[in-house]
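Preliminary data (for renewal application), zinc ion complex.
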Amino acid sequence: MSTWRMARGTPPSYLPDPLVQPIGAIENRVRRWLFGRGFALWYDPRYRLPLPSLEARTGVDARRPDFAAWFLLERGALAPGQVHKPARISYEDLARVHSAELLESLDRPETLARIYSVDPGDIRAEEVMTAIRLACGGTLQAARSCLRPPLAGSAARRELNLSGGFHHAGRNRNGGFCPVNDVAIAVAALRHEGFRGSVAVLDLDAHPPDGTADCLREDGAVWIGSISGADWGPLPGVDETVLRKGADDAEYLGALDALLSRMPQAQLAFVLAGGDVLAGDAMGQLGLSLEGARDRDLRVVDALHRIPSVWLPAGGYSPDAWKALAGTGLALAARSRAKVPAGYDPLAQRYSRIAARLTPAELGPPAGEDEMLLAELGQRSARPLLLGFYSAEGLELALSRYGLLAELRRLGYGPFRTTVTNQAVGDRAQLFGRAEGGEEHLLIECVVEKREIAGEPVLYVHWLTLRHPLARFSPQRPPLPDQEVPGLGLAREITTLFARMAERLELAGVAFRPAAFHTAYAGRAQLRFVDPARQGRFEALVRDLQGMPLAAATVAVASGSVMLGGKPYRWEPDEMVLWRTPHAQDAAAIAEAREAARFTVRGF
Ligand SMILES: [Zn+2]
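Predicted structure:
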């Protein structure tokens, strides 16, 4: 047996400030001390798939690993020293499981576009494969690491890799978000290194492990158990339980207890703690609650008390999928049933921590004497500032600290240049990035000013565009109204950034006036229409257009094909606001308007 070495690096820079501890963190730290020995987390910011259209096309939020990692660190469920960065898996490791044809096909954008249901014009194959190879490296390194002897008097080691569980990839075929099979690759590598022990694969994703069964069918020391919400026919070599559509917590946990009682003793276990078991998942058909999913994880932790285990997220296609993954981390690290607090926004939490470390001197120019004099005379500084505060250099530094320039680099841009200009109405900021060929492109542009909405001063966004000129439209992905080039997929980050600016400038919130349905739709998670009746009608419109692709829905609204009360509905471009502090929402008026409005689409 070769040495079970693990990669240890310097603590990464995404760790939270240890001096700021939220409520609940103390309890998590105590529980971590009591139960969390032998737990480790594998994570890299590059786990986020660099596919800007993924969310709009499939509803999948590529931020799931980030959100889970940030939450677990911020809540004190694990110590920074328990987080490890994986190395990319080698071609040799991949080739032990997959055919040369399959591996070669992964260099082609068309192959990856099919696997992720996006357009080939969106794919930079090398960058996507870096995300996948890091995930496979994490699964293998976690397996090696947890096979080390446990600490004296402790349970077996448990390690969670925040990307992986690609169980639909077989030896010669792939699909369904699974380019290669990380579990099979890890098992093959361990065998190559001399590990002969028996392996249990507990596949608790909502779909059957067809690829894993194919990859591991010749390894006589592997047992695969699975609970699914869909019947894909017989799977030789898998102890498979298929539950009815919509099966609830009790039914699922009953089936789990039965499966665990049949699970043979093993020297190593892989657990696919799928997030797609949740009710409302876009692709899974089960009906678990977040509490039920946590119960699942805690029961498996108990069953694997003496068996080292590697835990993987597998599928998860609902807005709550990241909470299921964070819950798996809480179960493993602190044996905790604590819920993710309602309304918790991991991106807002993280950005507020980064903002706290950006000083005014870094964001704006130090006020020179002549600039102060000009300000006293009511004149603009010679150096244009955004909202009288941010310099071009300061904005670029902020975009770098918040990780946005790193994301843009993964999409093929950089180096960058930022400009600020003062206009007759509002201030304009632009971010340009050079493409690899050398041509410079406009990537982000906004026009903003301070203005009063509903009697309070807000950061008012006149204009915002997030452009990805290296991506291409296609018949499957037509342009939205006003779109010259595809978007960057960073609307949520930029909105959160505007909220940080509003806080720094002591404004009450962020507001904009969506000119079309799709821009209101993009902001709906964070912003509300100021007028409760307008908000209610908008919620009814979102409800009634559900199932229609966003581009088609936008065109339908703009062209008058959407009917309200027998008449063509005209889009009402009113103000939407994200208030910094909770504002009493007229919930009753919103609900009344929502229930009163019934939209229909002609010819759909
Ligand atoms: Zn699944």
